[in-house]
Structure to design on (281 residues):
């Protein structure tokens, strides 16, 4: 079910912003790193794609480490004191207010619905002017989700691992078409080979921040250049490269990293892609 939601979000964004070159593997990588596709703490999706039990993270903190006060009267997270990241993509209430969409056409925007949450993340990833088929573009896109350097590298490595496994499946004889996200990938991912001829360092500052590790949560095309490497490799693979990395990590940690946003959006306008009425969060 999660795989179908990721692929649907890719299709919607491809129609809304073809220049973004978003691959479902990057959306899946975010889902893997934040909640293991909703499976964290025993979560499962019902027939409508809604996660049960409702998954909520710890209260979001600001630059000073203090918990941020509630911004939505508890409508999204059920907490009237603080804002909590929620759902399979751990979206903060202020972020959801900007990018939340009804992806599956059921008449409601639900951050616990894998379809709605996947498309919301896709909107965040593509809300700049970056080409996500290039590593600098992917770095900028993931930074808009969470600017923690470890989060960025974990998501990019998971994306590479998914792409490798997808290629292997498609090149197998007979061809194997995946029906669920791959689960046999590491979540530490520090040993995952980097893209060939691409920068190895993640940005020290997120767009519009002072480098404290606080996610901006809101897209701003004019800010994204400051967080991306200045050199763009000419041979970076598109969403599905034909070659596979020479090595894969051998150690798989038992626990998936847990990343939660620590700030709220700084702009009030909604990305244009979120207005799309997708057929597919």
């Amino acid at each position: 079910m999660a795989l179908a939601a990721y692929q649907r979000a890719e299709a919607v964004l491809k129609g809304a912003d073809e220049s973004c070159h978003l691959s479902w593997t990057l959306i899946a990588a975010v889902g893997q790193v934040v909640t293991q596709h909703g499976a964290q703490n025993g979560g499962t999706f019902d027939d409508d794609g809604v996660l049960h039990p409702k998954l909520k993270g710890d209260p979001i903190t600001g630059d000073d480490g203090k918990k941020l006060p509630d911004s939505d009267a508890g409508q999204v997270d059920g907490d009237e004191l603080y804002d909590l990241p929620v759902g399979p993509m751990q979206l903060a209430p202020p972020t959801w207010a900007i990018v939340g969409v009804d992806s599956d056409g059921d008449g409601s925007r639900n951050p616990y619905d894998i379809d709605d949450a996947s498309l919301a993340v896709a909107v965040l990833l593509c809300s700049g002017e970056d080409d996500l088929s290039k590593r600098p573009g992917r770095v900028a896109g993931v930074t808009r989700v969470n600017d923690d350097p470890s989060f960025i590298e974990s998501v990019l490595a998971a994306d590479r691992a998914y792409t490798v496994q997808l290629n292997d499946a498609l090149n197998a004889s007979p061809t194997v078409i995946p029906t669920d996200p791959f689960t046999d990938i590491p979540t530490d991912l520090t040993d995952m080979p980097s893209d060939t001829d691409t920068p190895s360092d993640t940005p020290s500052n997120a767009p519009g921040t002072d480098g404290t590790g606080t996610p901006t949560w809101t897209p701003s095309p004019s800010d994204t250049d400051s967080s991306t490497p200045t050199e763009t490799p000419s041979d970076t693979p598109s969403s599905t490269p034909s070659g596979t990395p020479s090595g894969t990590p051998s150690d798989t940690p038992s626990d998936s990293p847990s990343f939660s946003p620590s700030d709220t959006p700084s702009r009030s306008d909604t990305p244009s892609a979120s207005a799309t009425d997708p057929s597919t969060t």
The chain has six helices and two strands. Residues 186-192, 196-258, 260-281 have pLDDT under 50 and may be disordered. Strands lie at 44-45, 51-52. The helical segments are 2-16, 24-35, 93-99, 114-125, 135-145, 149-171.
